[in-house]
Every structure is written in structure tokens, then in C-alpha cells.
Amino acid sequence: MTKPDPEAGPAGPETRKGRRGRPPKSEGPSGTSELILDVAEDLFSKHGLHGVSIRDVANEAGVDTALLHYYFGTKLGLFDAVFKRRAEILNAERLASLDAYALKAGDALTPEGVISAFLQPLVEWGEKGGPGWKHYFALISQANANPVWGGETMARYFDDVIRRLIELLRLALPGARDEDLYWAYHNLSGALTLTLGETGRLDRLSNGLCRSGDLRLAYANMARFAAAGFRALCARA
Amino acid sequence: MTKPDPEAGPAGPETRKGRRGRPPKSEGPSGTSELILDVAEDLFSKHGLHGVSIRDVANEAGVDTALLHYYFGTKLGLFDAVFKRRAEILNAERLASLDAYALKAGDALTPEGVISAFLQPLVEWGEKGGPGWKHYFALISQANANPVWGGETMARYFDDVIRRLIELLRLALPGARDEDLYWAYHNLSGALTLTLGETGRLDRLSNGLCRSGDLRLAYANMARFAAAGFRALCARA
DNA sequence: ACTTTAAATCATCGACCGCTGAATTAAACG
DNA sequence: CGTTTAATTCAGCGGTCGATGATTTAAAGT
Question: For the domain bounded by A85-234, which CATH number is listed?
């Protein structure tokens, strides 16, 4: 993370550059703090917390480093803010999607249906949410692989939805032992994490036969794969 | 990564501390460069490349930072050396395990068998290889989630074994389309990555019902889960 | 109109970063 | 035994890091 980038374009309208003090009211689509979050999200998702300096973020966003401290306090505060921003939206939609499916399916819950409902908001945000959501997913993917702060962070933000998911899977797989349900979820979680990363690894390995950017296909295959896995793990004496 | 640790114990025999020059021949089990690699492996696996300074490694290993440059040149050179050290051992064993299974099974290859053979060396090293191997696995897990250098690194070190795995799975699932085989592998790879991390996430989520440290169980469940997934994905028109 | 507050830059501080050249000590080699 | 080479610490260089206090500008409140 060291890009000089000394003169990135004509620097916007009337080259207001280095001008100190509060800027005149602009009708821009979203505030400066959102812009900073977008940039930080992008960089953190690619290089991790320690791979990005606040100078990197400030330069890329075209603001002074002091402004990041003004809004977010510390570097860790910025990171947390990035993590939190979309978590709430995502969790609300995933819970709603699961509840809607449970209501619709009544007694006829299937593992495929539950898992698809769980994944659906990810597909939609990934496809229609713009690049910010893809960066966010990649960030989650990295957090899930981190043994130090990852576990705690993931638990804090996402355990509620996951418990609801497992609850519905328990209904869809009557007689399943809880232990097996959790182990099966562990495998699904790993597959999901890798998909969220969109690292392009599969594209290269398959010589272009599979495109990890095809989210709809990726998630459909994951639901089918995992549903079969759940059945196999949970249907034993 | 900032630990003071000003006086970690009595500093060994006769407190040879700050003593300059080549040390007298010691009958220690392995050389200083191996010790440095062990420490670096541990720290990198927990905090990532950018989360660890060469001073951190040097302090933890009880040597001067200049010694790391003497052995490994740059920080990246140290990281690569850590990555490479065990990759060769692991790959040789995984290929041998797959070949042995192919020979034994003849025409009666099963997905469970192939996947178990693929996973077996991981179980054994994880159980009997000491903490170094666990740190190494966690490092791989993080590399696999990294979108920048992870994909290239993983491909360089591990693609050979993976191609052999898919080849055998193709034989075990006659009629499967290559595209489906790759997508199924993608899901297995994700599950494996998460297991390798041993982040303790499942332990907490299941309130202690599942212990991610139980490698034998984790890998047995993964093989069963993934084999069913492969069948489900590959057995369609 | 005056005051207060919000939003921004500037200049800088002390700490830490990766890395290097010189010195030192002991082993290996002849 | 003398020379070369391997293994180590020391001292420090130039650069970057996260963070802060002072200052400036414009909006908001009264």
C-alpha cells in the first residue's frame, strides 16, 4: 500500500485543493464520512487492517488524515465503523428472508429452501448493491479466517442470524442431532466464506470454465451442495 | 503486536545475553533459522504479514533483527520461507495418499474415499506434528481468504495436488460435468479452509457441543458432507 | 448581526518501521 | 597455527506510522 498518485485528474470542480475550513454546502449524493467509509472498506477488504494506513485511506479519499480521526477517532474505530455499517442492513434482511420462507413453507421446510432463503440477500446485494457490497463481503471473508479478532467480531455481528438458520434447519431435518447440525453448518459456513471472497481462485483453477463472479450460479450450487451435506450428516443413527 | 516482555525468564544457560559473534557450538535440536521460522510462522498465522514486524519476530525469538535479514533477506523473504517450508512435505504426502488410495480401490473409487485420502495427511500432521503444523494450517487458511496475493500463492504451491484430487473425483463420479466438479471442489475447499483455521468459532456457536480441535471428527464429518455434496452437484442431467 | 458549532487542513510529535554496514566471536579449513 | 568463513550483535539511517493541537472557513442557531 504505497501509491504516489501525485496528480489524480483535474481534482474536481474549480480545483478546490488545499482549501482549509468547512466547505460550502454541496448537493453531493452522500457525505464525506460515507466516502471515507467506502474507500476504507475497499482497501481493508484487499489488504487487511494492518495492510492499510490511514494515510492510504486519506489519500485515496482526497482528504486529510486528521479528518479520519475527526470522524472515527482511531484507526480501529474506522475499521469497526466499516464493519458495522452494512451488518445491520444485512442481518435484518436475512432474518426477514428466513421468516418469510418459514411462513410460506409451513410444515414443509426443506434444507434447500432454508439455505436458499439464508443466502438470497447476499446474492441480491452482491448483484445489485454496487462494488461497496462486494468489498464488504470480501472483508467478512477475511474476518472469518482471522483467529485473533475474527471470531469475536463475527460472533458479535452475525450469531443471531445463524442461530435462526440452524433453528429452521432443525425443523427441516427432524431427528437430527444438534451436534451434527452444527458440524454441517460449519461446512456450509466455510463454503460461504470462500464464495464471499471472490478471490478468482476457482476461475484460474478451472481455466475459465467457472466464473466466481456469477453469484447466482455460485449460490445455487452452494445451496444444492450444502443441502445434500446436511442430509448426509444429519440422517444417521 | 507490541509486547514489552522485558525479562522473559532467566534467559537460558549462563545468561549469554548481548554476547556478540558466532556462538559456541550447541547441541540444540535445530538451528537458529528454524527457530526464527517457527516464531514467524506462529505470529504470521495470528496477525498476518502486515500485522507482524521483524522486530516482533526477533524479540520473540530472542535474536537481533539483523539476523533475520542475514538469513532471509527481506520481510517478504521470511514470509515466503515460512510458507514454503512445509508445503513440499505436505504436497508429497497428499499425492502419495491419493495414489495409494487409487491403487487400492482400483475401479471402485468413491467420493468419500478420495476425499478422505486427500484429507488424511492434514489430520495426521495436525494431530501429531506439534503446534508448528497447526500454525501453518492457520496461515494457509488466511492466505486462501486473501484476494491480493492469496490466490497466486495458493495456486503456486497447491494446484498440483488439487488437480490430482479432481482427476480422481472425476473417475469416482462417472458422467459428471467438469464445471460441476470444479464448483463442488470450490465448496469443499471453503469448508477445508475454515477447518484448517481452527478459529474456535464453532465451539462458541455451539456452546461447547462441538470442539474444533477434534480434527479426526472434523475431517470425518467434512468428508461425509462433501461427498454427498459432490454427488448432488454432479448427478444431474 | 453575532455567536456557536461543524467540517476541514496544516504542521508536527514521538514511536516504530524495514534495512544496512561495521564490528565481533567462534568454527572450519588449510 | 593462520586464514577464511559463518553466525551473531550493535548502532543507526531515512522513512512511515497513528495521533493531536492549532487554525481556518462556512453553516446553523439565536
Answer: 1.10.357.10
